[in-house]
């Protein structure tokens, strides 16, 4: 079996961030705490998968889940922890790179113009 020459921490970080929708969820939460329904409306993702990704991010210490029982129905809000917020500069750099280097096909561009 070939041994990887990658740093194990970098490899684990890329596996975590490489999961589908994870980066977009973190990017969305960079703007501040949000309720589940707001995240679901902002992202083209099913509620089941969003819930699963949020649980993964909470388990990894990137997202904090706050339950407010003083209202009916119970309100749940998600926010980034310090560990999650630390990804902000990296995600902003990726966004900048995308603006410079990623081309959208004609179909995607015509949808944005409407």
Automatic annotation (TrEMBL):
Keyword Transcription regulation: yes
Alphabetic keyword roster: DNA-binding, Transcription, Transcription regulation
Pfam families the UniProt entry points to: HxlR
Domain HTH hxlR-type: 7-106
Lineage, highest ranks first: Bacteria, Bacillati, Bacillota, Bacilli, Bacillales
InterPro entries linked to this entry: ArsR-like_HTH, HTH_HxlR, WH-like_DNA-bd_sf, WH_DNA-bd_sf
Annotated CDD domains: HTH_ARSR (cd00090)
Name of the protein described by the UniProt record: Transcriptional regulator
Gene Ontology MF annotations: DNA binding
Species in which this protein is naturally found: Brevibacillus panacihumi
